[in-house]
Amino acid sequence: MEPRLFITLLLLCLAESCYGGGVLFSSLPRTLVITASPKQGQVLKAGEDRITVNWGLNQNIQATDDPYKNVKVTLCYAPVSQEDRGWRKTEDDLSKDKTCQFTIVKRPYDASLVRNHSFEWTIGKDVPEATYFVRIYAYNSAGEEVAFGQTTDAKKSSNLFEIHGVSGRHLSLEIASACFSVFSVVSLVGFFWVEKSKAKRSSKK
């Protein structure tokens, strides 16, 4: 290894050890309560169906929401849809975590609305077919995660729902494809009939 490359890698390692990674999910208190309209096992369609989410501070525990400045509600992959998919892998370091890749809504935190926050979201056409749950993060003024809540349990095994992705094939395309196939067959038959007619006329001369 070249000395310059070695020194660069060493400095990067030292910088990471000094500043650390992102916020650890395991360090976050679960002080937010969130519910989502899909029922356990329900199947929704991307680009068509909607999800309604409601959230607020958990009133059953003693917690302060003073640091909360913003919240972000996200759509997250369930473990069954993460298996053998590194690009969806769960990491305790939230700067590396790939569990929740789709933002449902992001807005300032309003402490005056205890549990009346609500939002209706149309599932994006880019959401792939998988099993999901919903999670919410609260952020401080520095943009760091300081609390969370989710619609499933700690093992992420309950209140899961499925989303079927857009297939990319529509009825109009199917009809056009069928018409083109029929036109091709008719053209081919017509071509052979013309050629056969020419051959007959040539033989009569």
Strand count, sense and closure of the main sheet? 6 strands, mixed
Number of strands: 9
What series of H and E elements makes up the topology? HEEEEEEEEEH
The percent range for helix content is 10-25%
Structural class: alpha+beta
Beta content: 25-35%
Average pLDDT works out at: 83
Poorly predicted regions are 8-19, 169-174
N- to C-terminal distance = 85 Å
Shape: elongated
Alpha plus pi helix count: 2
Rounded to an integer, what's the Rg over CA atoms? 28 Å
Protein name: High-affinity nitrate transporter
How would you characterize this protein structure?
- The protein has 205 residues and is of the alpha+beta class.
- Helix content is 25%, strand content 29%.
- It has two helices and nine strands.
- The protein has helices spanning 3-19, 171-204, and strands at 32-36, 43-45, 50-57, 70-77, 100-108, 117-122, 130-139, 145-150, 161-164.
- Strands 2, 4, 5, 7, 8 and 9 form a six-stranded mixed sheet that branches. A three-stranded antiparallel sheet has the order 1-3-6, with no helix packed on it.
- A hairpin with a 5-residue loop joins β7 and β8 (145-150).
- The longest helix has 34 residues, at 171-204.
- Mean pLDDT is 83; it is low at 8-19 and 169-174.
